[in-house]
Amino acid sequence: MAEAEKEKLTIVVFSGELDKALAAFIIATTGASMGMDVTMFFTFWGLNILKKNEGSMGGNGLMKKMLNWMNRGGTKRLKLTHFHMFGLGTAMMKKFMKENHVPSIDEFIKMSKDMGVKMIPCSTTCSVMGIGDGAFREEVGSLAGAAFFLNEARQSKVTLFI
Amino acid sequence: MKADATLDCVGLYCPMPIVKTAQKIKEMKTGEILEVLADDKGIKRDLPAWCQTTGNECLGIEEGGGEIKVYVRKTQK
Prior knowledge:
The structure holds two protein chains of two kinds. Chain A has one domain (3-50, 59-161): DsrEFH-like (Hypothetical Protein Ychn, Chain: A). Chain A is built from seven helices and four strands. Chain A has helices spanning 18-33, 47-50, 62-70, 88-99, 105-114, 123-128, 146-155, and strands at 8-13, 37-42, 118-121, 158-161. Chain A has a four-stranded parallel beta sheet, with helices on both faces. In chain A, α1 packs parallel to α5. Chain A is globular and about 45 Å long. Chain B has a single domain, classed as Translation Initiation Factor IF3. Chain B has helices spanning 16-27, 43-54, and strands at 5-9, 33-38, 57-64, 67-73. Chain B is globular.
């Protein structure tokens, strides 16, 4: 398909749980495989998926530093929506995923980047939650706001909110 | 059915067979036939759907011994 006639898929990733992230990335990579132009717009807890696992927590001011300490983020720290059970359920799910050759969220992020999926953090939530520059991994695109999302969604055949 | 290439997706689940098929088809020439081997039952609906969206042709599905074979002809440019 030529670039001009590519159908668009836009996904808002609001949630930051392992299972919801998995659903979002499965649909994103499948869309890219189907020749669609895919944009993922990350906001609120969804931003945690894109945060680096290591490095400084950032945040300006004590309160925002505290928020980022409690809301550390990173693919390693994502929990299941149900049956997290102090990490036991989540660890088990990760084990099952590995056994069934389901890619990890880390692998999904790299794969999405390679497939041309755009991963855009919401600028407003970054400010509100005190998430500074350098908090995100290298695969992530530059920040944007609601107008960017709406402009993408307006042109999209499929728009999802996860 | 005689295929020009085979893609082994046995043991893989959604979305990997579709992701790998899309990558493989890119490397092939128009008119060539790809045989996709899989054991995830979802493939029987997913590959025809992928073909419909991408404009490739799904030639047929064969099943036996727990293994599913789907044949795709590259028709997209």
